[in-house]
Structure formats: C-alpha cells, structure tokens
Amino acid sequence: MTAISFPEARRQIVAVGRWLDGKGWAPATSGNYSVRLDDGSFAVTVSGRHKGRLGEEDVMRVSADGASLDGKKPSAETALHLAIYRLFPEAGAVLHSHSPDSVGLSRAVAGDGFTFTGHEMLKALPGNPTHDASVVLPIVDNSQDMAVIDGAITPALLAAGAPPAYLIRSHGLYGWGRDMAEAERVIEAIEFMVATERAERSFRA
Ligand SMILES: CSC[C@@H](O)[C@@H](O)C(=O)COP(=O)(O)O
Ligand SMILES: [Zn+2]
After folding, report:
1. C-beta of 30 in contact with ligand 1 (< 6 A)
2. Quick check: 2 pLDDT over 90?
3. How far is ligand 2, taken at its centre, from the CA of residue 48, in Å?
4. What is the mean pLDDT of residues 140-169?
5. SS3 37
6. What is the rounded distance in angstroms from the CA atom of residue 149 to the CA atom of residue 3?
7. Which atom of ligand 1 lies nearest, measured to the CA of 74?
8. Which of 38, 83, 115, 174 has its CA 20 to 30 A from that of 101?
9. Binding site membership: which residues?
10. Which of 162, 142, 195, 172 is closest to 33 using CA atoms?
11. Nearby residues of 90 by Cβ (< 8 Å), 6 or more positions away
12. DSSP E strand boundaries for 113-171
C-alpha cells in the first residue's frame, strides 16, 4: 500500500468516477470512492454528487473516524470504506459501484455468497495464481445503517480465500486494492465474471 497526497488522490478519484460512469456502473449519483492519504486521513467523494461528473470540489478529506476535515458532507457510506481500511491495513483505495449485473445477481441469489469457479479472470484477483479455483463473493443484506452492514459482512471478509470485494444485496459492489489501479482491477474482474455468468445462463436457456 502506498498512501498518497490529497491532490493525487483527488485526481485519481475524479478519473475513476468517469471510468465507472462510462461503464454504466455509477448511475444517478450512485457509488463512492476513497483513497488512503499519507497523513493518516482519507480522501472520499462528497455525498450526492454524480460520480461521472466529479470536479476537484467533489472530493474531500475525512479523519480515520469519519469526521469531515473540510466542512463538506462525506459519502453516506464512508463508514464502510473506513471499516475496510481498518480491517486491511494494506488497502490503499476502495471503490463502490452500482452495476445492473451485480445488483441483479445479488437479488437473484438468496444465500450469503456467490461462487465463481474456473474463470481465468480469477487470476486478476490478488493472490489467485490459477483459474482452477473457487472464490466466494460474499453477499450481505442491504441496510441504511452502515454499522449493521459492517457487522454482518466482517466475518466473511476475514474468511480464508475471501476476495477483496463484497456485494450488498439490491445495492452494489464494494472492492478494494493496495492502490487505485488494483481496486479498479478487482471491480472490473468481478463485473466481468458476473456478466459472464449471466451470458452463460442466457446461452443455456
Ligand atoms: C442514489 S442511489 C445511491 C446512494 O443511495 C448510495 O448507495 C450511494 O452509493 C451514493 O451515496 P453517496 O452519499 O453519494 O456516497
Ligand atoms: Zn451505494
């Protein structure tokens, strides 16, 4: 993990919002993004902004306990980002997307996880050297209380072999990495596998 300066984090967050929106994974102000900063604070998106049209003023700083450091209102889901940084000290960036495929999958699957087996794309996830594996993407029920989501998902995130990602049912995907590039790769790889699973089912139907 490389903690970076606020101006660099702001640049990365503005860029990732454009990228995710271009993919159709940030509709209607959904999603939020954060980066661990070199002074121990965090850069995070301001709440309610359209993430494909972020300007520099739409990225702010919060302390490790989520307090606004510049008077702006941080993402409503800031606590979920900070929980990931606390659990995984090597995490440097966290992304949250709302894609139709991932949200659809989370609604179609009743259990607390979805297993990807045999995908070459599994190798895009850190620490997975082969396609010949099964990786369970945890799924947690949605809540407007971030402490409820955090409490319910933490055991699954700490399980052996857990990917650096989870789905909130009827809501969206969280993914993280040592830096922004790795977090982007995690989100893109999982979205690819979810889309592939959907395509597979449509060909079989
Ligand atoms: C408008 S739907 C999305 C929001 O309710 C929320 O889930 C979200 O992802 C964005 O919230 P935000 O407070 O802008 O970070
Ligand atoms: Zn959301």
Report:
1. yes
2. no
3. 10
4. 98
5. strand
6. 26
7. 13
8. 83
9. 96, 98
10. 172
11. 1, 178
12. 113-117, 134-140, 165-168
Q: What is the mean pLDDT of residues 169-190?
A: 98
Q: Give ion ligand 2 contacts, CB < 5 A.
A: 172
CATH number for the domain running over 6-204? 3.40.225.10
Question: Chain-centre distance of CA 3, in angstroms?
Answer: 18
Name the amino acid, one letter, at 86: R
Rounded to the nearest angstrom, the distance between the alpha carbon of 145 and the centre of ligand 1 is 13
Q: Whose alpha carbon is nearest atom 15 of ligand 1?
A: 75
Q: What's the predicted TM-score (pTM) here?
A: 0.98
| CB of 77 shorter than 6 A to ligand 1 | yes
pLDDT at 136: 98
Annotated binding site for Zn(2+): 96, 98
User: What pLDDT does residue 3 have?
Assistant: 77
Average pLDDT over residues 29-50: 98
User: Within 5-160, where are the H helices?
Assistant: 6-22, 78-87, 100-108, 146-157
Report the nearest-CA residue for atom 1 of ligand 1. 30
- 93 token code pair: 């960036």
Ligand 1 pocket: which of 16, 20, 29 to mutate (most atoms <8 Å of CB)?
29
Q: What percent of the chain has pLDDT over 70?
A: 99
